[in-house]
User: Which sequence fits this backbone?
């Protein structure tokens, strides 16, 4: 739908951060427009094929609202998963030389009807705990969903507010600003938008076009004095993925390769990579070869050429999987995501930059009075160096990390392009965390309008109080009242101490 040309809030980008910003603001009475260059809402989480929410704290508020709505309207389209087979936990083999001994080509995640949403709300193992196989099987659970059902549900929830217009299939053209205030944006379809406030939920493109300072690639040690940072900067980016879906129920066969895919195997690396294989509620599977393309090659090729090359690679990868693991010969590749899963692009320099210091320090040691979201995913650079390092506890994201530096009065950032160092961004990048950022900026925009403030002037206490009323987790461990809300609304009866009690007596924030 589309309507007026002037709004209270314009959200540029309809991915996880953008839809949460729009929903929060619209529920609080703002007139909102969402501009999304794709054909559906959800961004990486739908069009990008990352059709799952990994385990992690903070998935209350808008993420839980959306989960509950999909569960109500399309119960066969969403479910909670547990870990199945994993090649790393099988002895006596070496990838890729002993493939005949490997029982699965990577990691498997299966729908588990005995698990509930609350089981997905923790990743960190706790102080001095090694997250071994037993611990991960017990504590790591996520949410898997069909992308069209998720996108349709989000669109319905936005439309039901009566305050949201959609501009799908449109992108940012030119930006007009004055005195550190964005006044209007001309879109790729030639139309112009005016708004009192703006949210960049489009990978930093709005901020970049407006002239904000941005970063890209690996930050040098001198920038944030992070212990794991290299001495020199580089343009090395987190790897990208092209995800494909396979469905069961076909006659046993290995699908033939297309003419444009070489038969000799993996031409871009020494060997085929393993994959994360997540079961959908419809029993199909989401296959994510890790990675499909290194970040540097993606930057060199550009998005369109990189996508075409990745399509060839996933065809070759699927052929490899079917050839070596006969159980997959009754499956067929039925869908390739229409866009790449991009983990890292521009990052906006904000009034506060989240760094490795914050992530490793953890929530119990943070002293920020303006935390608006929690996260606990590992520091995981996916091929850009540093490995995957689990955290001892969650950490908080302060609101100034969403405020572009330089005195911008009506512009906020929601998404992976927020004020993160490259190391912090390797942790703070998952869909439900981005929704938390979006919910915070949408709420801040409503408070700013109500109290006639600029966006940076919104009082932290007022913003945090408003977020708590929307059932956003701002304390760790989760309060008893919020725990009860999630369980009651999701009709859960099982006891789950993992989201209530901190390990080893860590203090309640």
Assistant:
């Amino acid at each position: 739908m589309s309507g007026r040309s002037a709004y209270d809030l314009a959200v540029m980008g309809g991915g996880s951060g953008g839809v949460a910003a729009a929903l929060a603001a619209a529920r609080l009475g703002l007139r909102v427009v969402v501009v999304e260059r794709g054909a559906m809402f959800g961004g990486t989480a739908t069009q990008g094929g990352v059709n799952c929410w990994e385990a992690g704290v903070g998935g209350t508020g808008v993420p839980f609202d959306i989960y509950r709505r999909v569960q109500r309207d399309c119960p066969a389209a969403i479910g909670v998963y547990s870990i199945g087979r994993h090649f790393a936990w099988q002895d006596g083999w070496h990838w890729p030389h002993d493939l005949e001994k490997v029982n699965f080509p990577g990691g498997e995640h299966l729908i588990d009807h005995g698990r509930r949403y609350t089981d997905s709300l923790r990743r960190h193992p706790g102080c001095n705990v090694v997250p071994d196989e037993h611990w991960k099987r017990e504590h790591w659970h996520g949410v898997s969903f069909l992308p069209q059902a998720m996108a349709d549900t989000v669109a319905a929830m936005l439309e039901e507010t009566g305050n949201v217009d959609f501009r799908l299939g449109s992108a940012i053209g030119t930006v007009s600003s004055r005195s550190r205030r964005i006044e209007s944006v001309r879109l790729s379809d030639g139309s112009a938008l005016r708004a009192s406030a703006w949210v960049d939920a489009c990978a930093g493109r709005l901020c970049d076009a407006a002239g904000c300072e941005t970063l890209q690639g690996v930050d040098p040690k001198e920038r944030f004095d992070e212990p794991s940072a290299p001495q020199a900067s580089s343009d090395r980016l987190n790897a990208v993925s092209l995800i494909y879906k396979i469905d069961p129920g076909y006659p046993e066969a290995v699908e033939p390769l297309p003419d444009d895919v070489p038969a000799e195997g993996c031409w871009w690396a020494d060997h085929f990579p393993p994959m994360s294989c997540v079961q959908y509620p419809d029993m199909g599977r989401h296959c994510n070869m890790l990675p499909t393309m290194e970040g540097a090659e993606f930057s060199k090729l550009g998005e369109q050429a990189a996508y075409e090359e990745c399509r060839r690679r996933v065809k070759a990868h699927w052929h490899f999987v079917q050839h070596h693991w006969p159980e997959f010969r009754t499956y067929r590749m039925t869908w390739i995501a229409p866009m790449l899963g991009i983990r890292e692009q521009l990052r906006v320099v904000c009034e506060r930059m989240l760094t490795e210091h914050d992530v490793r320090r953890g929530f119990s040691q943070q002293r920020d009075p303006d935390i608006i979201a929690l996260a606990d995913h590992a520091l995981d650079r996916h091929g850009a160096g540093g490995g995957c390092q689990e955290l001892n506890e969650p950490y908080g994201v302060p609101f100034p990390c969403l405020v572009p530096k330089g005195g911008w009065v009506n512009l906020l950032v929601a998404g992976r392009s927020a004020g993160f160092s490259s190391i912090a961004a390797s942790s703070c990048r998952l869909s439900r965390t981005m929704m938390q950022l979006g919910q915070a900026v949408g709420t801040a925009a409503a408070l700013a309008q109500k109290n006639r403030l600029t966006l940076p002037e919104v009082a932290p206490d007022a913003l945090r109080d408003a977020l708590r009323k929307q059932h956003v987790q701002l304390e760790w461990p989760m309060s008893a009242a919020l725990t009860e809300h999630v369980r009651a609304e999701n009709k859960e009866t099982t006891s789950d101490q993992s989201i209530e009690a901190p390990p080893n007596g860590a203090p309640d924030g």
Remarks:
- The domain at 6-51+148-225+344-505 is CATH 3.50.50.60 (FAD/NAD(P)-binding domain).
- The chain has a mean pLDDT of 92.
